[in-house]
Amino acid sequence: MLRAAKRFFSLRLSLATLVIISFSLYTIWHLSETRTLSSPETISIPTSTPIPEAQKIPKKLWYKLGPKGLSDQSRAWIDTCLERNPDYQHEFLTDESADVYVRKHFSSRADIIETYFNLTIPILKADILRYLLLFVEGGFWSDLDVSCEEVPIGDWIPVEYRNSTGMVLGWEFDVGWFRRQFATWTIGASPGSRHMAVVIDDVLSTILRLAHEHNCTIADLHMDMIGDVIDVTGPVRFTRSILASLKLDYQGIIDIPTVEPVYVPRIFEDVLILPGYAFAEGINKYPEGHTYGPKLVTHHYAGTWKNEQGGEVD
């Protein structure tokens, strides 16, 4: 009887030991899984490295014509860029050729095809197009009402940043009393830019959200539903997307001043940010007597997106 009791006790002890070991192994596994999913030290953060030669910003200028074509004034502004940058290719897209381009390069992205071809608001499509073009081929996008100043595009990037720049942006507003945003009338990017990919995805999700909010299809969206264009596809949305991408790279920290103007170009990851005087000298006022760099382009604010449908005036 005593022997049976010992065997029973030994069996209970073995079972208890097995339970303890099993629980310990589960706890270790669970903590390991939790750390893998949520611990900052296990998140792979891209580091700033020189961009391969093939991924530098191509020497190409992109333009998009409206239904009315190219005016003499726009032609004159564009000529300043072409004449001062003779080593740059240039391409003009029409509505028809833009549609062909998007279908060709994004046939595998149903979300892009559905959004782009169902939108009936021209200005939204024009904004999206510039992001798509730059993502596929890179180069410099320029609105039709932008003229180039004396500095060639090849010299916009300081020498010390030329091997590490994959995107060139300029502040549109660079003053402390107004929200800051990047200009989108001139954008430079390398092909396949992950920052541009963030912009595209953010714009698509914003348009889809607006359609859901109004209980309609994308094709049924019209101007009085979307609010301010700059918040949907324009500079505000673009700026938020770029900064969100940079914050990811920098684990939530980005060293961009919030009050004082930026006087010199600064690079974050592979994004070169130019001061307000570079792309928008006319609307960024600096202290008298302060020396700052040259303006690179002039935006003439001759945009034709003026009618209630988000298209050109007749």
What's the short story on this structure?
The protein has 314 residues and is α/β, with parallel strands linked by helices.
Give an account of the 3D structure.
There is one protein chain. By secondary structure, this protein is of the alpha/beta class. The chain is 42% helix and 13% strand. The protein has helices at residues 2-38, 72-84, 95-105, 110-118, 122-136, 194-213, 223-226, 229-232, 235-249, 276-280; strands at residues 60-64, 89-93, 139-142, 146-148, 167-173, 181-182, 186-189, 266-268, 271-274, 297-299. α2 links the parallel β1 (60-64) and β2 (89-93). The chain is globular. The termini are far apart. The chain crosses the membrane at residues 9-29. Keywords: Membrane, Transmembrane, Transmembrane helix.
Q: What's the overall average pLDDT, rounded?
A: 81
> What percentage of the residues does DSSP assign to strands (E)?
5-15%
* Total beta strand runs: 10
**Global Rg:** 27 Å
How many structural domains are formed by the residues? Answer: 1
Oligomeric state, counting identical vs distinct chains: single chain
Structural class: alpha/beta
Order of helices and strands: HEHEHHHEEEEEHHHHEEHE
Structure keywords:
Spore Coat Polysaccharide Biosynthesis Protein SpsA, Chain A; two-stranded antiparallel sheet; alpha/beta; 314 residues; eight-stranded mixed β-sheet
What is the element layout, followed by pairings?
Layout: H1 2-38, E1 60-64, H2 72-84, E2 89-93, H3 95-105, H4 110-118, H5 122-136, E3 139-142, E4 146-148, E5 167-173, E6 181-182, E7 186-189, H6 194-213, H7 223-226, H8 229-232, H9 235-249, E8 266-268, E9 271-274, H10 276-280, E10 297-299
Parallel strand pairs: 1-2, 1-3, 5-9
Antiparallel strand pairs: 3-7, 4-10, 5-6, 5-7, 8-9
Helix pairs in contact: 3-5, 5-6, 6-9
